[in-house]
Amino acid sequence: MSTRGFCLGTNPWSRWPTLPWLRVLLGLGLILGLQTASSTAFYLPGLAPVNFCEVNGETKYCQSSIELYVNRLDSVESVLPYEYNTFDFCHDFKKKSPSENLGQVLFGERITSSPYEFSFNKTETCVKVCKKSYDSAKEDQKKKLDFLKKGMQLNYQHHWIIDNMPVIWCRDINGGNKYCTTGFPIGCFVTPSGVSSDACIMHPEFNKNNTYYLFNHVDITITYHSENEVDWYVSKLVSARLEPKSYKHVDENHLTCNGTPMEIPGDNTDKLNIIYTYSVKFEENKQIRWSSRWDYILESMSHTSIQWFSILNSFVVVLFLTAMVAVIILRTLHKDIIRYNQEDIQKDYGWKLVHGDVFRPPRHGMLLSILLGQGTQVLIMTFITLFLACLGFLSPANRGALMTCSVVLWVLMGASAGYVSAKVYRCKHYYSYSNVVFVDIFIMNLILWIEGSSSAISFGTLIGILALWFGISVPLTFLGAYVGSFQKFDYPVSINLIPRQIPHQAFIRRPFFSVIIGGVLPFGCIFIQLFFILNSIWSHQMYIMFGFLFLVFIILLITCSEATILLCYFHLCSEDYHWWWRAFLTSSFTAVYFFAYAVYYFFAELKITGIASTILYFGYTMIMVLIFFLFTDSSCLLLRFLNFLLKYACRKMHTSKVYSIEYTL
Fold first, then answer.
1. What is the helix (H) or strand (E) element at residue 133, kind and residue range?
2. Residue pair 625/595 in contact by the 8 Å Cβ criterion
3. Which residues have CB under 8 Å from 608's CB, separation 6+?
4. 357-371 b/e with 16+ CB inside 10 Å = b?
5. What is the per-residue pLDDT across 596-620, written as a single tens digit (0 to 9) for each?
6. Residue 4 and residue 377: Cα distance in Å, rounded?
7. Which of 70-79, 162-171, 374-383, 439-448 has the weakest average pLDDT?
8. Rounded CA gap, 646 and 451, in Å?
9. What's this model's pTM, rounded to 2 decimal places?
């Protein structure tokens, strides 16, 4: 029986519904990216402004007291963050801590009150906060001073908060520009050989060998915007900056906040007194409104041009792949269809020859179905999280919201993982690789707990996460698997009883080569954006350009799917029908390049020292690589579209009936 049956001139891609949807998603991502780049303000739903007024005008509608909160201290030279109270700074004995959400707990944020408290629009100069004394003869005081020295040597950074805004430190750099960060150092260290590091480089007076210089004074500038409301005159804070200083106060009763810096000799054996002080002033700004007050943090973030270069680079890759796919779709495949419908052609060739084996179940189908299910869960979670972030709901102003949203969505998307796994494998059993991630997190948390880091998750939080997993995610997973296991696949052709022998393949068409090549293009679309993400995680820089990230996310999906379709078509043309795992690994191999780049970033960009920090870096990196591996393989579910391609191409084969095959791997 002849297997011809395509109508002459039929273009199977005229009904292709996927491309318009991809265009819609790409357009949506472009709009969000343009909005992020061009907008100067956003209002985060759920966060209301706080009104401030002077002490003599305080009412129930406004307050005069401004509280300063402190967050954990971190360093680019160590992965171990510490709580503010771990160091021997000035402590607030009342210790008021705002409630923390799940995301803040998982990120290790520990926000607490401080003894720094100001009155609105009241200028103060050289105000004493507290005095700390150290005697090297007393072991407990010596340990506190040594830990403070260690913090200065590793360049640990303060993170202060006023009215839910990070207090920034700006300094001049080359070209007359300013570089602003949301943290400022404890101090700095000049080595015994006279090499200055970190903040000591900016202060020529910090020049003594083997000496620590402590920033024990801060000059704070708070900017406010005044508005005339209906019945009262109120103000809202729009920015907070500071300048750390080092002063050796001789007389605590007559503070002047000038003179020689606060020096701590490296081999100090004498008694030492440190007095912490501050100065604060207020400035009015009539241009900056409360809704756009976070814009001042972007002053030093001159990465927009680089971001657009990244987007342009990614678009070039996508256009190249789209052109390749279009050539196959509109020319090669169409010519094949015309050829098969010509009456004088009796012999099939290429991808047509494997129509009886292309739907043959792959080896290790259980493993494949599990990975696809987990990948779908991560894919949906990532898409919704980034979309909400683009709308401003997960802004940095809403601390911990990004991680909280990701965890909640991951739990709720268990149903999709079970459904996809059961749909592919068609069974009611389900296994998860989440336990691998949990074991990794547990080991990393154990190291953090031993080191006394603030990022260590408490036992109660771990129990809560397990409760979310077993109490919500697992039941939803079995529910999805139950629904997916009752559906059948209908194939337009039957599967041959005897597998077709695959001809000898050239080296460039073997799986190893194609998988390596297939991961290069997707990684080329994201490596610039990946640099900013790693900077945000390990260099403690604020990441708020979610519009760019969402656009790159969409481009990555398109690139992975097109590269996979392209390579799989070439392999089918060479009569190799083992496309399941090859299609899966083609885009997932991008995670290998991700890991290689993370290794390069560790040695080239970071100054991390210590065995514990190194283990933590690569431990957390492996979690990110595994999640990225699952995410990119779920984009291979667009290979379901390749399945549709083969169905359409074979739909009008001259076959007496359509076989309904229950797909059991």
1. strand 124-134
2. yes
3. 76, 77, 78, 79, 538, 602, 614, 617
4. bbbbebeebebbbbb
5. 999 999 998 888 888 888 998 999 9
6. 41
7. 439-448
8. 56
9. 0.79
